[in-house]
UniProtKB/TrEMBL annotation:
CDD domains: FAAL. Coiled coil: none annotated. PROSITE patterns: AMP_BINDING, CARRIER. It comes from Mycobacterium shottsii. Keywords: Fatty acid metabolism, Ligase, Lipid metabolism, Phosphopantetheine, Phosphoprotein. Residues 120-141 are annotated as: Disordered. This is Carrier domain-containing protein. Pfam families: AMP-binding, AMP-dom_DIP2-like, PP-binding, Thioesterase. GO terms for molecular function: ligase activity; phosphopantetheine binding. GO terms for biological process: Actinobacterium-type cell wall biogenesis; fatty acid metabolic process; lipid biosynthetic process. Its cofactor is pantetheine 4'-phosphate. Belongs to the ATP-dependent AMP-binding enzyme family. Pathway: Lipid metabolism.
Length: 878
C-alpha cells in the first residue's frame, strides 16, 4: 500500500461504514480478519469514521466450536453493532457453516449481528455503497478523550475486559515510538506480529502508518512454519527495524541452521526489539551469539516493556543487566548484586522517559519502595488507557490506584507485573498473579520453565507450564505442579523418565519438589491467542480433572515409593547417569541404601536420583521436609532421630553414619562439662566454678567473645556443639515434666527493646543460625534466641500448640523481666512468634514492642493448628 492507497482506502471504508453499514461515531464494530492488508484497510477506515474497532483473533471458520465462544463474549461485552471481515474469511465461514449442517453440529456464531465485507473485489473492483469514494467521513471531529479502539487483552477469556484506548493515547504512543526508535525516511521495518494485539496493532501498524518509512508485514503462521524467512526478508529489504517476543529469538536459534545464518546480512538493523513477554538473558545471549556472523550489532538489541493497559510501551532500549543474589531476590524481594553460583541475571528494559512516571510499589500497602526492592510496577503517562469498557469498579481499581500516605492527586495503572528500579533502569521480574510462594520463597514460574526447556529431548519447547496447586493432606499448603508437552511420537515407556527428569531438574536447580508432574500430548498447555502461557487456566484444568483426562502420565508426590530394584542391587551395575545427575549407593552398604530410600520417599523421586554426598538442603529439602525425614528415619530404624541430627548431618552418608553409632556423632569440640549439669547452658560456668556467668572460660564468655571479635563461625560451632550435647541429657527419673526450653543470650547493650528470636527445630532457624544476626547488635542491644519446647531429646513434648505457647511465654517473662522486647521468627518459628505475640496481647502485656516475621506469610497461615503441631513436633517422636 502506498500513501495514496492509504488515504483512498481510508476514505472509502469510512463512507462504506457510515452509509452502507449504518454505523455512527462511537459505535463498536468487531474486526474478524486473517492477518493481511484487508485488516489494515478496515482499521484505518474505522478510525477515520469514528467507529470504534474491536479487533479479535478470528475463530477457525471450519471448526469454530472451540473459539467462537470467546467471540460471543467479546460481542456481548463491547455491545458491537456489526462484524467486519474480508471476502476470504466470509467464504471460509460459509463453508464451515455448510459443513456443520452436514455433520449435524451446532455453531453459536453471533446470530443477531450483520456481517459486512470490506475487502476490495476480485480484479481490483472496490466495495460498493452510497457516498463519494475517497472522502473521509465529513462532519465528525475526533477528540483526544474519545475512544479510538477497544483492545481485548489476550488473557481475558471467560471474563473479557476491553481496554479503552483513546485518540490521545494513540497520539502519545506514536510520538513516543518516534522519539525513542527514530524511524526516519529511510526506515524499513519487517514484522510478523499478530495484528489483533497491542504490539502488532499499535507499535507496528499504526506507528508504521504514522511514520515516513516502509513496513513489510508477514503472517505469524508463516513465521512459525519458517522462522528463517523472517531473516531472509530482513536481509533482502535491508531492514532497519524489527520486533518480536522472547520466544521468537529462541525459535530462531533452534529452527535455523548455521548455513542459513551464514548467508544473512543483518548489518542494516538498528532496532531489534524484544518485548511482550519477559526478556531472558540466556535467550538473548544465545540469539546474539548465533547471529554474530551476520553483522548485527549487539547494541541494536532492544529489550522493552509494555502492556495493553498502557496502549503499548512503557520503557524501551534496555542497555543494562543486573546480576543479583537469587536467594535474596526470592526470599527478601531485594536485588543484592552478586556473581557466580546462586546468582541470577536480570535484563534492563530501558530508562524511564520524562513524560512517563514509573513507581515500584508494595502491592498490599501501596507505599513506594526504594531502588533495588521488588514490588508491583505502577505507571502513569498520557499513554495510560481510560479503563475497561463497561467495568467502572474494575477500572477504578486498576487504572486509578493511589499511593498511600501521599497528597499527590496522580492516579496510577496497576500493571500486575513485578519489577524493580536500579539507577533509573526498569527491570521486570514476572507477574504478580503468577508468583509462586513456596517454602517462604518468591518463585517466578518462568525461571522453572526455562530450566526445563532442554532437560529431556522429548519435551516440546514452549510446551511447559509451572503453577501452584494445593498440597498437603488437606490442601493446606501451596505446592508446585509442572505440565510438560511431549512429542507425539514418544514411546510409552519413556513417559516416566520424562517425569523423573522434571522432578530431578527442579530439585537440582530450584531446591523445590514437584507435587505433580503432568506429561501430556502437544497442545495441552493453555495459551492466549498471542502465545502466552495461561498458568491459571492450566491450574483450573488440573483441578477439575480435564487436564488429567487428556494427560499421558500424572506423577504425584504421594505416588513415590521405594526403588524398583532390591537394596542389594543398588549401585552394583555402576553409576546411573542422567542429565540431572544421579548417585549410586556404595556397593554392599544396605544401610546407606535404606537411608537413601527414606530420603527419596520424602522427595517423591526415585532413590537413584538422590545424591548421597550433596547436602539435602541443596537438593530441595525444606524445614518441614527435615522434620518428615527425621520421623521416617525414627520409624524405619526404631530409634529417636531428632530433626537437628538430620540438619547437622546434611547428607545421606552423614545420616547413615549417625545411625550406625550408638552415640550422637559430629561433636569434635566439647564445651565445658558444666553444660550438662547447669539448667541454663547459656549462663553456666565451668565445673566447680559457682554461678558467676562472667567467668573467663564460661560458655557464655566463649560465645560472646567469639561474636564480639567477629569470629562468627566459631560462635556458631560452639552453639552446634552445645545443642548436640544437650540432646543426650535425660532427666534422672526419665519422667516428663512441664515442657521447657533453654534460651541463649548472644549480646547485651543499653538500647531497648530486647530482641528475641523463636527458632524452628531444624534447617536455617536453629539457635546457632542467629549468631551472625546478633553480631550486628553487639554492644547495642540484647539479643537472645529460644528453641521450641520439645526440641531436644529428653525435653517433654507440649501436649498442644497452646501448651507450647504458654511455655514460651514463661521463658520470655523470666528472660526479660520488665524490659520491652520484640519477638521475631522465621518459618514455623515465625508462626510461634505470631501466636506468642497474640498471647501477650490478650493479657495486655505492655512490654511487647512488636512481632517481626522474617519470611512471607498470609495471615491465614499464621494460626497454630493441630496440623502444624503434628508436622513440626509430634511426627518427630511418635
Amino acid at each position: 500500500m502506498s500513501r495514496a492507497d492509504v488515504v483512498s482506502d481510508m476514505g472509502e471504508v469510512a463512507e462504506f461504514l457510515r452509509h452502507h453499514c449504518g454505523l455512527e461515531p462511537g459505535d463498536r464494530a468487531i474486526l474478524a480478519y486473517p492477518s493481511g492488508l484487508d485488516f489494515v484497510r478496515c482499521l484505518i477506515g474505522c478510525l477515520a469514521a469514528g467507529v470504534v474497532p474491536v479487533p479479535i483473533y478470528p475463530p477457525d471458520p471450519i471448526n469454530p466450536q472451540k473459539t467462537v465462544d470467546r467471540m460471543q463474549r467479546v460481542v456481548a461485552s463491547s455491545g458491537a453493532k456489526a462484524v467486519l471481515t474480508s471476502r476470504r474469511y466470509a467464504n471460509a465461514r460459509r463453508l464451515g457453516t455448510a459443513r456443520s449442517i452436514v455433520t449435524g453440529s451446532t455453531v453459536g456464531w453471533p446470530g443477531d449481528l450483520p456481517w459486512h465485507i470490506t475487502s476490495r473485489g476480485i480484479g481490483g473492483r472496490r466495495m460498493r455503497g452510497p457516498g463519494t469514494p475517497g472522502a473521509p467521513g465529513r462532519g465528525w471531529s475526533p477528540s483526544l478523550d474519545a475512544p479510538a479502539l477497544l483492545q481485548y487483552t489476550s488473557g481475558s477469556t471467560s471474563d473479557p475486559k476491553g481496554v479503552v484506548i483513546t485518540n490521545g493515547n494513540l497520539a502519545h504512543q506514536v510520538d513516543f515510538n518516534r522519539r525513542l526508535l527514530g524511524p526516519g525516511l529511510d526506515a524499513r521495518g519487517v514484522f510478523w506480529l499478530p495484528p489483533y494485539h497491542d504490539f502488532g496493532l499499535i507499535s507496528v501498524i499504526l506507528s508504521g502508518l504514522a511514520g515516513s518509512g516502509e513496513v513489510t508485514l508477514m503472517s505469524p503462521l508463516t513465521f512459525l512454519q519458517r522462522p528463517a524467512l523472517w531473516f531472509d526478508v530482513m536481509d533482502r529489504v535491508r531492514a532497519t527495524h524489527t520486533a518480536a517476543p522472547n520466544f521468537a529469538y529462541e525459535l530462531a536459534v533452534r529452527k535455523t541452521t548455521a548455513e542459513q545464518r551464514a548467508a544473512w546480512d543483518l548489518s542494516s538493523l538498528q532496532v531489534v526489539m524484544s518485548a511482550a513477554e519477559p526478556v531472558r538473558e540466556d535467550t538473548t545471549s544465545r540469539f546474539l551469539d548465533a547471529v554474530s556472523g551476520t553483522g548485527l550489532r549487539r547494541d541494536a538489541f532492544c529489550p522493552a516493556y509494555g502492556l495493553a493497559q498502557h496502549t503499548v510501551a512503557v520503557t524501551m532500549f534496555g542497555r543494562s543487566t543486573l546480576s543479583v543474589d537469587r536467594h535474596q531476590l526470592e526470599t527478601q524481594r531485594l536485588a543484592v548484586p552478586a556473581d557466580g553460583p546462586g546468582s541470577q541475571v536480570l535484563i534492563g528494559c530501558g530508562q524511564v522517559a520524562d513524560d512517563v512516571d514509573v513507581r515500584i510499589v508494595d502491592p498490599e500497602l501501596h507505599v513506594p519502595l526504594a531502588d533495588g526492592q521488588v514490588g508491583e510496577i505502577w505507571v502513569d503517562s498520557p499513554s495510560k488507557a481510560a479503563g475497561y469498557w463497561g467495568l467502572p469498579d474494575k477500572s477504578r481499581d486498576t487504572f486509578g490506584a493511589r499511593l498511600a500516605g501521599s497528597d499527590d492527586s496522580r492516579s496510577y495503572l496497576r500493571t500486575g507485573d513485578l519489577g524493580l528500579l536500579h539507577d533509573g533502569e526498569l527491570y521486570v521480574c514476572g507477574r504478580l498473579k503468577d508468583l509462586l510462594i513456596l517454602a517462604g520463597r518468591n518463585i517466578h514460574p518462568q525461571d522453572i520453565e526455562e530450566s526445563l526447556r532442554d532437560c529431556h529431548p522429548a519435551i516440546r519447547p514452549g510446551g511447559i507450564a509451572a503453577f501452584a496447586v494445593d498440597a498437603g493432606d488437606a490442601g493446606e499448603v501451596e505446592g508446585l505442579a509442572v505440565l510438560v508437552e511431549v512429542k507425539a511420537d514418544i514411546a510409552t515407556e519413556m513417559l516416566s523418565g520424562v517425569a523423573d527428569e522434571v522432578q530431578a531438574v527442579v530439585l537440582k536447580n530450584h531446591q523445590l519438589r514437584c507435587s505433580a508432574v503432568v506429561v501430556a500430548p502437544p497442545g495441552s498447555v493453555s495459551k492466549t491467542t498471542s502465545g502466552k502461557v495461561q498458568r491459571a487456566r492450566c491450574r483450573t484444568r488440573l483441578l477439575d480433572g480435564t487436564l488429567e483426562a487428556e494427560a499421558l502420565l500424572v506423577a504425584r508426590l504421594e505416588d513415590a515409593g521405594p526403588p524398583d530394584v532390591p537394596d542389594d542391587e543398588l549401585g552394583t551395575a555402576g553409576p546411573v547417569v542422567t542429565s540431572a545427575g544421579a548417585w549410586p549407593a556404595a556397593p554392599g552398604d544396605p544401610l546407606l541404601a535404606s537411608v537413601r530410600d527414606q530420603v527419596a520417599a520424602v522427595f517423591g523421586i526415585r532413590a537413584a536420583r538422590v545424591d548421597i554426598d550433596q547436602p539435602l538442603s541443596e537438593q530441595g529439602l525444606d524445614s518441614v521436609g527435615f522434620v518428615k525425614l527425621a520421623s521416617r528415619l525414627s520409624q524405619a530404624f526404631d530409634r529417636d532421630v531428632p530433626p537437628v541430627d538430620v540438619f547437622n548431618h546434611l547428607t545421606v552418608r552423614g545420616l547413615a553414619h549417625i545411625l550406625r553409632d550408638a552415640e550422637v556423632a559430629g561433636c569434635e569440640h566439647h564445651p565445658p562439662q558444666a553444660l550438662l549439669q547447669h539448667p541454663n547452658p547459656a549462663r553456666c560456668g565451668p565445673a566447680g566454678d559457682g554461678d558467676d556467668a562472667s567467668t573467663r572460660d564460661s560458655f557464655e564468655a566463649l560465645l560472646k567473645g567469639a561474636i564480639t571479635t567477629g569470629r562468627i563461625s566459631e560462635g556458631m560451632h560452639l552453639l552446634r556443639s552445645a545443642s548436640q550435647l544437650r540432646l543426650a541429657v535425660q532427666s534422672e527419673s526419665g519422667a516428663r515434666t512441664w515442657p521447657t526450653a533453654v534460651p541463649t543470650t548472644f549480646t547485651s547493650g543499653p538500647k531497648a527493646p530486647h530482641l528475641i528470636f523463636l527458632c524452628t527445630s531444624v534447617f536455617s532457624s536453629g539457635v546457632y543460625n542467629y549468631a551472625k544476626i546478633a553480631s550486628e547488635f553487639r554492644g547495642v542491644r540484647a539479643v537472645s534466641a529460644i528453641p521450641l519446647p520439645g526440641f531436644a531429646r529428653g525435653e517433654p513434648l507440649p501436649d498442644s500448640p497452646e501448651a507450647a505457647v504458654e511455655c514460651l511465654a514463661r521463658i520470655v517473662v523470666e528472660l526479660v523481666g520488665d524490659e520491652p522486647f520484640v519477638l521475631a521468627g522465621q518459618s514455623s518459628g515465625g508462626k510461634f512468634a505470631y501466636a506468642l505475640g497474640k498471647r501477650f496481647e490478650d493479657v495486655r502485656n505492655r512490654n511487647l514492642a512488636g512481632v517481626d516475621l522474617l519470611d512471607s506469610h498470609k495471615e491465614s497461615d499464621l494460626e497454630l493448628t493441630e496440623l502444624l503441631t503434628r508436622e513440626i513436633l509430634y511426627d518427630v517422636y511418635e
